[in-house]
What does this fold into?
Amino acid sequence: MVNQTAHRLGTAPNEIRQVFEYGRQQAKLLGEDKVYDFSLGNPSIPAPHELNQAIHSIIDTESSIRVHGYTSGAGGDLLREAVAANLTRRFGKPIRPQNVFITCGAAPALLAAMIALHTDESEIITIAPYFTEYKPFTEVSGNKFVLVPADMEHFQVNIPALEAAINEHTQAVILNSPNNPSGAVLTEETLRKVAELLTEKSALYGHPIYILADEPYRELVYDGRKVPFIPNIYKDTIVCYSWSKSLSLPGERIGYVMVADDVTDSQNVFFAVAGAARMCGHVCAPSLMQRAVAACIDRMPDLEAYDVNRKLLYNGLTEIGYKCVRPDGAFYLFVQAPNGDTRAFIEKATARNLLVVDSKPFGVEGYFRLGYCVSKEMIERALPVFREVYEELCAG
Ligand code: PLP
It folds into this structure.
């Protein structure tokens, strides 16, 4: 016998990966130029030159024993100090290195935070559409998964729906801004309303309801938009971050959990995060990457290529007639399927090797997700195919 939950997760199809693998097969059979694959969220902008230079310089100049050795579980001082100084400088909130726990990316950061917050009958609220891993992470950590639909007009938080979902067992609400899959950025107005509601409910139930701010896309915003720093709006916020997207390092596995001093029970939450990471087998994040990221801590991503793709795809699709909220961040478009029928759209699109992801695993029906972290040239080739599918589905 094996663990049934683990087995179920291990055998469950990863729908995004399946679409991607199908695209690879078709490209081999028909040629790359006959496939239009928008399935993955793998950054297409290369990691910055400074980062590669930093890696070379660290390897060339530092002791190999130290560079490849263990750091402490919470991370080496170098990166924890760099993160604390960077956050303090940018957001004006005093953050100490001791508030920062370096993880192997945002996914383990989230899981550790969820395990840390688990108590008897605890519930964690997710706003749909959501990053697919929230559900297994919430459940594996022992918490009840509670889903609240977003306000689908702008993908902001539906405050009455959130209020209705909160009860005495609510431990946390996950907020992901900029959002995967919608590309929406939560406005300061939305966040203030959420903060007001959670403050009121925390007082009512006599314990803090935390925000888990999942922020791997924090720096990926366009048109000068600002992403509010949630701990400045609601103090009981636990930040989960990674450099997977901002420095294009998804395979290097590096991120952090940040628990500021003014979070209720801050020290205990921090130690519970450390213990939760240990429960998941965390020893330390990759040492070389810790040093390389510390050297590039102030480097902001150059988003030009994503921005060009965003405009090309959004303008092209809406001109054809597709309906979609203009994304302000991340690198996804969340598009309404013509006639609300995602299956019919995907069938016709896949027959033309136009590959997209069904919205169902993101917790809503009737949409599909496009990752525009692809080449501009592929978008240009794909737009006439999008038109063909649209016209076929909407004919008559
Ligand atoms: N959260 C969201 C919203 C994501 O889209 C992703 C990855 O795509 C993650 C977390 C996990 O990021 P990481 O690669 O840093 O574990």
